[in-house]
Amino acid sequence: MPHKPTRSFFERLNQSFTDSRWQSYKRFALWGYGVVVTLVLASMLYVLSLDLPQTEGHGTVVHQAAENQAVLRGREAENIYNKPADSMSAGLAKETVSLLDGGAKPNGDANLDRDESADKRAKPDSETLATLASKDGSITIPVKDIEAILPIPQASEPAWRTYAANWTQKGRKHIAIVIDDLGLDQDMSKQLALLEGPLTLSFLPYADDIRRQTKLLRQRGHELMVHLPMQPKAVTADPGPNALLEDITPAEFERRLQWNLERFTGFVGVNNHMGSALTEDAGLMVRVMVQLRKRGYLFLDSLTSPNSVGSSAARATGVPYIERDVFLDNERSLSAILAQLKKTEDIAAMRGYAVAIGHPYPETLKALQFWSAKLNRHTFSLVPVSQLVAQRSAAEKLAEMKKATGP
Questions:
Q1: What share of the chain is helix, strand, coil (3-state, %, to 5)?
Q2: Which CATH number is correct for 155-405, 3.40.50.880, 3.20.20.370, 3.20.20.140, 3.10.50.30?
Q3: Which of 125, 205, 291, 334 could potentially form a cystine with 260 if both were Cys, beta carbons 3.0 to 4.6 Å apart?
């Protein structure tokens, strides 16, 4: 019988790697390693994708993403829209309060305040619904600023009431049309003086011959505002001389603010020119509001940023305020501007009022002339911004009184 050669240790080890059972162990080990690596990578991606809240300087304001805000506002407005028509009209009647007779009284019976033509309208789009929902946020005042803010002396006769254009009881739904960026084109000011109003006209404070221009328009029954220049986010955008900026000293900030508020007289308040950066800064917006409160002015938030804290700062310091609903002429064509005016009507029909902002473009003036001639004056009326602010303030005060006295 032939002798079998003895295999070395390495030969036997090599043979063991070919064994089928060992191959199964190898495959299982490789599969387990792959699972572990996949789980680690997935965990890292999840951590990187977290959307953490942000904190803005000066005041502590926590903002949600603009997209989430739009979705939430749309859902809230959907709930409002889907209420029965009688219930909705009753709510509008309670919120629409007139101060024309010197008192805070509802505008009448809910059934009389109902807009039959609005009931027949098609359901507004999601953008209109989102606009209808409340945009008010919250604001935290830094402790170091409290002594400078409280108490805040207020003008004995607020300028926003003293210089308000004539208010009207006509029409059940009120629309305020604001034209800003005025003053640089004096011919445009003359053309606006001929339009039926009252319009609310906001002037850039650094315009030439501004006192003569504003005096003419106020004599024609229009309401005046200061288009207050503020710092934008775009580094290429120039808000103009004496604009309120984030990186200037407090003393220079106050000097510029005072300069802008003293260029002409007879105005009811201010709205921001640009300002997508500054209106997100709670501390600086509080500084603006302190001066507006002292001088008796109102504030219209142009909402050049979805994260603006302008209205929150106004509410915190007791400044009467309101917010823009629609920009009329981001697209400068007659058809596009008329479509935006229709959207303004839709908002006013549902909520009782709307605020639209346009600019001194020839297309905008032509659209306003056409739209004003066709406007259903039985349902809608043009009013100055001050009237909407007064009605809103009175409605809020009435709600507080009812809450204090109980059911």
A1: 50, 15, 40
A2: 3.20.20.370
A3: 205
